[in-house]
Amino acid sequence: ETGVTQSPTHLIKTRGQQVTLRCSSQSGHNTVSWYQQALGQGPQFIFQYYREEENGRGNFPPRFSGLQFPNYSSELNVNALELDDSALYLCASSRLQGYEQYFGPGTRLTVT
Amino acid sequence: SQQGEEDPQALSIQEGENATMNCSYKTSINNLQWYRQNSGRGLVHLILIRSNEREKHSGRLRVTLDTSKKSSSLLITASRAADTASYFCATVVSGGSYIPTFGRGTSLIVHP
Question: Among B23, B39, B41, which would you mutate to test the A interface (most chain A Cβ atoms within 10 Å of its Cβ)?
Answer without folding.
Answer: B41
